[in-house]
Every structure is written in structure tokens, then in C-alpha cells.
Specification:
The structure holds 2 protein chains of 2 kinds. Chain A has 2 domains: 1-67 and 154-219, P-loop containing nucleotide triphosphate hydrolases (Rossmann fold); 87-151, no CATH class. Helices cover 31% and strands 23% of the residues of chain A. Chain A has helices spanning 43-51, 89-94, 98-101, 109-121, 137-149, 167-182, 194-200; strands at residues 5-14, 17-21, 25-27, 32-36, 58-63, 72-75, 155-159, 186-190, 203-206, 212-215. Chain A has a 6-stranded mixed beta sheet, sandwiched between helices. In chain A, strands 1, 2, 3 and 5 form a 4-stranded antiparallel beta sheet that branches. In chain A, a hairpin with a 5-residue loop joins β9 and β10 (212-215). In chain A, α4 (109-121) crosses α5 (137-149) and α5 runs parallel beside α6. Chain A is globular, with a radius of gyration of 17 Å. The two termini of chain A are 29 Å apart. The mean pLDDT of chain A is 84. By secondary structure, chain B is mainly α. The longest helix of chain B is centred in the N-terminal third of the chain and has 26 residues, at 12-37. The chains are: A alpha/beta, B mainly alpha. Chain A binds chain B through residues 48, 51-53, 68-70, 72, 74-76, 81-82, 85-88, 90-92, 95-96, 98-99, 101, 105-107, 129-131, 134, 147, 151, 157, and chain B through 37-39, 157-162, 164-165, 167-169, 171-178, 219, 222-228.
């Protein structure tokens, strides 16, 4: 299988009730898929299925070999309590290497270096000692992005990454994301901010009434 | 006063009590950090009430060691509560309230219906607020408590990073392949063990204090998970040592003296935190 993700006849839902059908789609290396659709169409659910947090109600969802063991970087919607969690930026980014760490109790030197490189890449290395709860919304998302790419990430899943960001921080975030995507990491994201998300998307997956999947020309 | 302390500490059981007390507080403080951060402080409280009920039942059934019953019962309740807190949205809260009040009422009822000694209210008071004097704790109690606490501390250090991963972002940890359900279950068991063990020192009502005070105090001044952990551990050890010493010298009940010192420590940390900001 050359694709990272292949979905066929997928039906999404909670428990055993399917809420929505999903068009067949594939995600190849380096693709950037934007998921759009009305509220309740199953965008987050689809992302959680790919991340392995939920099981689809029906159909097949196949991941490339080894992708499920640390190849996926996931950036979930932020819960309220994370905003006052006492954690330093370094600790948060480092936790992106947890799949590499496996059953070892502590991080190796190589893993700590990966975290440092990821922080540098996203321009948050100056904040390494800072407390996560003292950061601005844009800084936080960059930290979480650094966490997502610091493992052996081949596929990045983002759930509404720009919610609560001002326009400037949003466009900065998308530029960063575009850079990561151009480096060969595939991206699948849910976003309410259609302009920015569609700007960098190579494919668009629409859920809901007019479900469809298609390629789009990049600007 | 120094002479008095020296004299007291010439007795081995006083020294043992101090060592066990400090180890119990240390393990409780370490566990309290993820518990507070995950907003589960009240599970600790509820479980201690359950443990009270179980101890009363053990007393009525003439168990030689009440821990033989209270430990498995508390562990079972910890697993049930953990499950209900993630399943239905608000049921966890109500389940906890019913469970803790129900266990306390049943325990008190049984203690009165079939008293194991002539002094029921004295027994109840000891179970609720801990031994009046640490000197009444038996040597076996102390060594058992010390051993279990040491085990908890070692487990905690070995799974420190995983604890951070799961506490900070459980979904992310699962997406990275961590079996969070299993991990949470294991830690629910550990929390239950610590609660049952520390009940001997501070009593069922005050267990929550040594779980929660160090973590909350540390969060006032520390800004990373590692520093919160270290500050909480040091805070707890210092407060418990002072508390036990004061209790020995002034003859006050150990549990409430330790909690009193915790309260003063918390106020001090809050003030320091305000200046640091």
C-alpha cells in the first residue's frame, strides 16, 4: 500500500449508530487534506477514527504498515483544563516522542534532541522553559505542532487548530503548516477557517449532505 | 524542648513512626499531583469514605487485620468510580456522592449495632481522624505502610513521563499508542492503596488533605510538571515532619496537626506565588 490512509465505504458514528456516511478517500505521502462540512457531520469523529481513538461503525479504514505505532502526530481540540496545566514547553514538546520512548522510563539523548529540533523548527525554542499556561493562543498551537512532529511523524492530524487565534496568528500558523507539509509530512485537518485551510490543501473532503472527495489545484 | 525531642526519639517506635509518616506523605503528595491536575481530587475523598465503611465492616466481622478487607473493597470502588467518571457525563459526580455517604453511614451503623469494643465513639473518632497518638500504631502497621509507600514512590518515578503524557493530553497519548485505559486502572489501584495506607496516619477524613494540599500548594509557585512534582514532594515531607514533631511534643492528634501545618504551608506558598507573579 503506497497510500498512508485508505478508506472505503466508511460509516462514522458513536456506539453502534452511524451518523454519517463518508466518501471513499485516500491520503498519500505529502498530501494535505482539508475536511469541511457542517457541524455534526462527523469531521472530528473521522479524525479520531484515523488516530485510532474510535472505531468506525462500518467499512474499512486501512493505515500504512507501522503508521499506527507513532507515525501519526495528533493535535486534538484543546480541553479547558490544559490551559492551566503547569507544564513547561519543553515537557509538552518532548511528550511527542512518547511512542519512540515506548516502555523505557526516561527519554534518550536522541529523543531530547528531536524535541529541541522540533522547537527550533517552529520557532518556540526561546520559550522552552516557559510555562505552557502563560503562552498566547498562537504560541500554544505552535508548541502543540512541535509536539506532533517531534516523533517519527508521517501523518499529521489537526482538529480545528486555529480556533481562537487572531488573523495574524492564524496566517502564521498556516505558513508553518505549509512548510511542514512541503517537507513531506501528510496533513489531514478539520478547520472552520476555510480560506486559510483551503489555501494550503491539495485535497478537499466534504462531509454531510453533499459528501465528496476531490483534488484541488494549489494556488 | 530539644531535650524532650531527644528523649522521645530514643524510643525506636517514635523513630519508626516518623519514617513511616514521612514516606506515606511523600507517596500521597506524588499521587496528588496527577489527581489534582485531572480534576479528580474528590475521588480521593470518596474513596477514603468507602475505606471507612470497609474498615467498620471488617471490625464487625472480626477480621484480624482490617486492611485485608478495606484494601480490596477500596480498589474495587476506585475502578468503578474511574469508569463512571468517564462514561456518563454527570453520573460520576452523583455516583461518588452516593457511594461515599452510603459507605460512611453503613460503617457507622454497623459499628453501633455490633460494637467490637466498649468505646464506639472513640473507635469512630480514631478511624475518622487518625490515631490520637502515633505511638498507638503497631510496628507491623508502620513497616507495612512504609513498604507500600516506598513501592508507590518507585512506581511513580518509573512511570513519571507516562503520567505526564496521560495527564496532560489523554487523547494524544492514546493516538501515540499508549493503553490509557489500562494505565488509568493501574493508577486507580495505586491511589486506593495509598488512601488505605495513609488512613492509618491521618484518618479517613483527612486523607484528602495530604493528597491535595501539597499539589495545590506547589502549583502556586512552580511552572513545570517536574518542578510541581519536586515542590509538592518537599512540601509534603517538610509539613509532615513538622506536624509529627509538634504532635509528639504537644500531645495533639497526629492527623489534624499535619493538616494544620499543611494549611499554614499552603497559605505561605500562595503568598510567595503572588509575589512571583
Amino acid at each position: 500500500m503506497t497510500n498512508l490512509v485508505e478508506c472505503r465505504d466508511l460509516r462514522l458514528g458513536y456506539g453502534s449508530t452511524a451518523i454519517t456516511p463518508c466518501p471513499d478517500f485516500t491520503v498519500g505521502a505529502g498530501d494535505c487534506v482539508s475536511i469541511v462540512g457542517p457541524n455534526g457531520a462527523g469531521k472530528t469523529t473521522l479524525l479520531k477514527c484515523i488516530a485510532g481513538l474510535l472505531k468506525p461503525v462500518g467499512g474499512t479504514l486501512a493505515l500504512a504498515p507501522g503508521l499506527g505505532d507513532g507515525g501519526i502526530g495528533y493535535l486534538p481540540q484543546q480541553g479547558p483544563f490544559q490551559r492551566d496545566f503547569p507544564a513547561s514547553v519543553r515537557e509538552v514538546v518532548q511528550s511527542g516522542c512518547q511512542a519512540l520512548r515506548g516502555l523505557r522510563p526516561f527519554y534518550s539523548r536522541a529523543e531530547r534532541r528531536r524535541a529541541a529540533e522540533a522547537m527550533e523548527r517552529l520557532g518556540v525554542d526561546m520559550l522552552a522553559q516557559k510555562c505552557y499556561r502563560e503562552l498566547s493562543g498562537g504560541q500554544r498551537q505552535r508548541v502543540l505542532l512541535a509536539r506532533a512532529i517531534c516523533g517519527e511523524c508521517r501523518l499529521l492530524l489537526l482538529d480545528e487548530p486555529t480556533t481562537g487565534l487572531d488573523p495574524e496568528a492564524t496566517s502564521h500558523f498556516y505558513r508553518m503548516l505549509h512548510g511542514i507539509n512541503s517537507g513531506g509530512i501528510a496533513v489531514v485537518m478539520v478547520s472552520h477557517d476555510l480560506d486559510g485551510a483551503l489555501d494550503i490543501a491539495t485535497h478537499v473532503l466534504t462531509l454531510g449532505a453533499n459528501a465528496s472527495f476531490g483534488r484541488r489545484a494549489r494556488k | 524542648m530539644i531535650d524532650q525531642i531527644v528523649e522521645y526519639f530514643s524510643f525506636p517506635f517514635v523513630r519508626n513512626a516518623l519514617v513511616a509518616g514521612v514516606l506515606i506523605s511523600l507517596s500521597a503528595a506524588l499521587l496528588g499531583v496527577p489527581l489534582v491536575l485531572k480534576r479528580l481530587s474528590f475521588i480521593g475523598d470518596g474513596l477514603s469514605h468507602v475505606a471507612f465503611g470497609a474498615m467498620a465492616v471488617a471490625g464487625v466481622l472480626n477480621f484480624a487485620d482490617s486492611m485485608a478487607l478495606s484494601l480490596p473493597v477500596t480498589i474495587a470502588c476506585a475502578l468503578v468510580l474511574l469508569k463512571s467518571s468517564r462514561g456518563a457525563k454527570n453520573a460520576g459526580d452523583a455516583t461518588l456522592a452516593m457511594l461515599s455517604v452510603g459507605a460512611m453511614a453503613t460503617g457507622y451503623l454497623l459499628m453501633n449495632l455490633k460494637p467490637s469494643s466498649s468505646n464506639v465513639s472513640g473507635d469512630v473518632c480514631t478511624t475518622l481522624f487518625g490515631s490520637v497518638s502515633i505511638l498507638t500504631l503497631t510496628a507491623t502497621d508502620l513497616w507495612l505502610s512504609a513498604g507500600l509507600s516506598l513501592g508507590v514512590v518507585v512506581c511513580w518515578i518509573l512511570s513519571y513521563h507516562r503520567l505526564f503524557d496521560v495527564t496532560f493530553d489523554e487523547d494524544h497519548a492514546r493516538a501515540c499508542g499508549t493503553n490509557t485505559a489500562l494505565f488509568n486502572a493501574v493508577w486507580a489501584v495505586v491511589v486506593a492503596v495509598v488512601i488505605v495506607v495513609s488512613m492509618r496516619l491521618v484518618g479517613t477524613l483527612l486523607v484528602t488533605a495530604i493528597l491535595v494540599f501539597p499539589a495545590v500548594s506547589a502549583m502556586r509557585v512552580a511552572k513545570s510538571f517536574r518542578s510541581v512534582t519536586i515542590v509538592a514532594a518537599v512540601f509534603s515531607v517538610v509539613c509532615s515532619t513538622i506536624g509529627i514533631l509538634v504532635a509528639v511534643i504537644a500531645g495533639t492528634p497526629v492527623g489534624s496537626t499535619i493538616v494544620g501545618v499543611d494549611i499554614i504551608g499552603f497559605l505561605a506558598m500562595s503568598t510567595i506565588g503572588r509575589f512571583l507573579r
